[in-house]
Write a structure and sequence with these properties.
Chains A, B: Keywords: Lyase. The structure is a homodimer of 403-residue chains. With 403 residues, chain A is α/β, with parallel strands linked by helices. Chain A is 28% helix and 23% strand. In chain A, helix 5 runs parallel beside helix 6.
Chain lengths: 403, 403
C-alpha cells in the first residue's frame, strides 16, 4: 500500500526539449487556474464539490484540487477531501494515500461486492450507486453481515443519455424499498447530465444544468415524501457545474474534466483554448509533400481515438496542433489538425484538407497536440510531465490504470 | 531491469466468474492456434518472421510466439528470436528480458538518439528506420562516435498510406547517400502496406501483398544497383503475411495482430470470429428498456474508441457481444453490439437499432466483447487473464505501456 505520508511528487527539473516524444504534458499554471475557477464557483454557490478523479487518476492532481478548494472555502473541502471515482482501483489507490470519503459512480454489480467490503473494512467511507431492484436486493443480501454499512445513492436519469431511473417513475420508490437490512444505508440520489456535451451555447448549458438540478431534487423529494431519508442530492459535470445559475436542493456537485479542460469543453464555450492544461508533446518525423501530410510520432496510442463532439461542432480530428510552447498554430482557432492516425504515427493536415497548405517544419520539430477529450488522452500515458510557468519540466506525476 | 532468467508467468487458477469486470481475457488455445498458423505459413514460404510485439506488449506472449516459430521451423526463429517494436520502451522491456535482435519500426528523430545509444551499449542489435535526408544526416552525425554501429533501414512507401519513400523515386538514393560514417550501417529497406486493411476479399489481399513485396524488392534492387549494400528486405502486416502467394526477394516478414486477431481481421476474411483470442469480460449493470439499451461496465476505457473499419464493412460499433463462454450471441455473425460508450459504461443495442430487440439479461450477467482492433483494446488494460481450454483463469500476464 502507498504510504499516506510519503511525498506525492519528486522534483525533476529539465528543459522541455530533453523529453523523448510522445509525452503527456501538464501545464501547472493552467491547472491551478482551472482548479481555482471551479473552487470559486462552488464557494459562491455554497455547495460541496466532490471532484471526479477519473480524469487525472493522479494523487498530486487530487491534492492540488483539495488545496484549491480549501483556499477558496468550498463547503466540505479538506486536505484529503471528498472524491468521486470511476473504478474501484481508483478507490484503492486514493484510499491508500489518505482519501477516505469516496463515491464510486458506476452501477454496482455482484462481482464487485467483495472489493467494496474490503474498502469498508479498510476504513473508507464508501458510497455506491445502483438503479435496479435486482442490484438493490443483491447488495442488501451480501451486505447483511458487514459490520459497517455501505452508503447507497439511487442513480437518476435526468437527460436520457445513460443509466438511471426517471425522477418521476415508480421504479425509484421500488428500488428504495428493495434496499433493506443493516448492511446498506440509503443516502439519496445521484445524476449526471451527459446531455450537457451536446449543448450549443450558454443558454443551452444553463438550461441543461437546471434540468439536472430539478430532476435530482424531484427524485430526492419523492423519496422523502415516501418516508425514505435522502440527505444527499449529487449532481454534476464540468459544463453544468460551471453554468448552473442556482443549485437549490443540491448538496454536492461532481465534476472531473475541468482540471485539464479540452477541445470539447472549448467547443461548448466552457473554456478558452489557452486554458487547456493537458497536451501531448510530439516530434515531426517526416513528410509526404504530395499529399500535404506532416507525420508526427503521436498516433492513437498517445492521443486516443476520441474524436470529440459530433454534430455541429468543428471537427478537430484527433487533436489540434500547437507549437512547442503551446500556442495554437494558424488563424481562427488553429488551422492544423491530426486528421488520422496509426498506432504510433499521426498524420497532420490543414483543416481544409488542402495539400498545398502543409505544415512544412523540419524533421525533429517539437509540437504539442491539444486533446479532444482529456480523460481519454491522459489514459494513454503512464505519467504527466509537469511544466512550470517558465515552460521547463518540474516534476513527473504518475497516473494509474486498470480496474 | 527485469531478470532475463526469471519466470515470465505465475500460476493463478480461478474460475472466470471470480474476476472483477471489466477484465481483458486471452484465450490460450486460440492464441496458440494463431501462432501456429502464422509459423506454418512462414515456414512454408521460407522467410524469417519478426513478430511485432506492439499488439501484446507482453513477455509471455512473445515467448509463446518464439516457441511456436521454433517448433514450426520458421527461418531465424530462436528462444528469444527477432522482434519488431513500436516504441523504445518496448525495446527496453524486451531487451531486459533477453530479446536482443530488435527493429524499431517508427521513423527516428533526434530526441531518441540517446536512448538508441543506450540500447546499443546494452548489447542490443538494434535496427532503426528513417525516410529523409535530414534524419539520415542527423543520425550519422550523432552516431559518429558510437562504438557499435546502428543498423538502418530506409522506409519505403508501397501504398500511399503512411510514411516512407517511393521505391522508384530519387529520394531513396539521396537518403542512402546521406547515411555516412562508422556509426550507421545501411541494411536495406522496410515497408508496411496498411492498405491491406481496406482490401475487400482474398483476391484484393493477394494483390496488395504482391504490391508490398514488389515495391520493397524494387527499392532494394535500386539501392544495390547504386552500390549500396541492402541485404534486408522487410515487409509485412498480418493480412499480407497470410495472403502473400510468394515472397521472392523478401528476407523477413513483420506481423503483429495475428497473435490475437480481431473484428477487423475477421471482416477482411483473415480469420473467423471464433479464432479471436482477446476479449473483454464485462457485466450487465442495468437496462433502459424504453430505448432497448443494456448497460455494461465496459466503456471506452476498457474497449478503446477504435471503431474498426469504415467503408463497406459491417459496423460493429465498439465491439461485438458474446456470452461468458465466448460464443457470439445471435444469428449471422452476431446481433448485439456496443453501439456507444462513456468512460466506464457501454451501451449495448441490437445491430438494427430496434429497441424491441433488447438483450434482456439480468443485472450481473457476464458477457464478453470481441474487439474491433486488438492492439487498441489491449492497450487499455494492465494485464491479460489467461484462459485455459476449460475456460478457467490460469495465469495473469502483465502488459506494459508508455514510451
Amino acid at each position: 500500500m502507498h504510504d499516506a505520508n510519503a511525498p506525492l511528487t519528486r522534483p525533476l527539473t529539465r528543459p522541455l526539449a530533453d523529453l523523448e516524444t510522445p509525452a503527456l504534458l501538464l501545464d501547472e499554471p493552467r491547472l491551478q487556474a482551472n482548479l481555482q475557477r471551479m473552487a470559486a464557483r462552488m464557494a459562491q454557490l455554497g455547495v460541496r464539490l466532490r471532484p471526479h478523479v477519473k480524469t487525472a487518476k493522479c494523487l498530486p492532481v487530487a491534492a492540488a484540487t483539495d488545496s484549491a478548494n480549501l483556499a477558496a472555502g468550498v463547503p466540505g473541502a479538506g486536505e484529503r477531501g471528498p472524491i468521486t471515482v470511476s473504478t474501484l482501483r481508483e478507490a484503492d489507490q486514493f484510499a491508500a494515500a489518505g482519501w477516505r470519503d469516496i463515491t464510486y459512480a458506476v452501477g454496482l454489480t455482484a462481482n464487485k461486492f467483495a472489493h467494496v467490503h474490503r474498502l469498508l473494512d479498510a476504513g473508507v467511507a464508501l458510497t455506491v450507486i445502483l438503479d435496479s431492484v435486482d442490484a438493490a436486493r443483491a447488495l442488501s443480501a451480501a451486505a447483511a453481515d458487514w459490520p459497517v454499512p455501505v452508503a447507497v445513492l439511487i442513480e437518476v436519469d435526468t437527460d436520457g443519455q445513460r443509466a438511471g431511473l426517471r425522477p418521476d417513475g415508480a421504479a425509484l420508490l421500488e428500488v428504495a424499498a428493495a434496499l433493506s437490512g443493516s448492511g446498506v444505508r440509503l443516502d439519496g440520489v445521484l445524476t449526471h447530465c451527459g446531455g450537457a456535451y451536446h449543448a450549443h451555447g450558454e443558454a443551452a448549458l444553463r438550461a441543461i444544468a437546471e434540468q439536472e438540478r430539478a430532476g435530482a431534487v424531484q427524485a430526492a423529494q419523492r423519496l422523502r415524501a415516501a418516508g425514505f431519508a435522502a440527505p444527499v442530492v449529487s449532481v454534476g459535470s464540468t459544463p453544468t457545474a460551471l453554468f448552473a445559475e442556482q443549485l437549490a436542493g443540491v448538496t454536492e456537485v461532481r465534476a472531473g474534466v475541468y482540471v485539464f479542460m479540452d477541445l470539447m469543453m472549448a467547443a461548448l464555450g466552457v473554456c478558452r483554448l489557452d486554458e487547456i492544461a493537458a497536451s501531448v508533446l510530439t516530434s515531426v518525423i517526416g513528410h509526404q509533400p504530395d499529399k500535404g501530410w506532416t507525420l508526427i510520432d503521436a498516433g492513437w496510442m498517445a492521443l486516443s481515438r476520441d474524436r470529440g463532439l459530433a454534430g455541429g461542432f468543428t471537427d478537430q480530428g484527433l487533436g489540434l496542433i500547437c507549437d512547442a510552447d503551446g500556442r495554437v498554430i494558424g488563424d481562427g482557432g488553429g488551422e492544423w489538425i491530426v486528421s488520422s492516425a496509426n498506432q504510433e504515427h499521426g498524420i497532420v493536415t490543414h483543416r481544409s484538407g488542402d495539400p498545398a497548405r502543409r505544415l512544412d517544419l523540419p524533421v525533429g520539430t517539437l509540437l504539442r497536440v491539444l486533446p479532444n477529450h482529456a480523460c481519454a488522452t491522459a489514459a494513454q500515458h503512464p505519467h504527466y510531465e509537469l511544466l512550470g510557468a517558465d515552460g521547463a519540466v518540474r516534476q513527473r506525476w504518475a497516473r494509474f490504470m486498470g480496474w
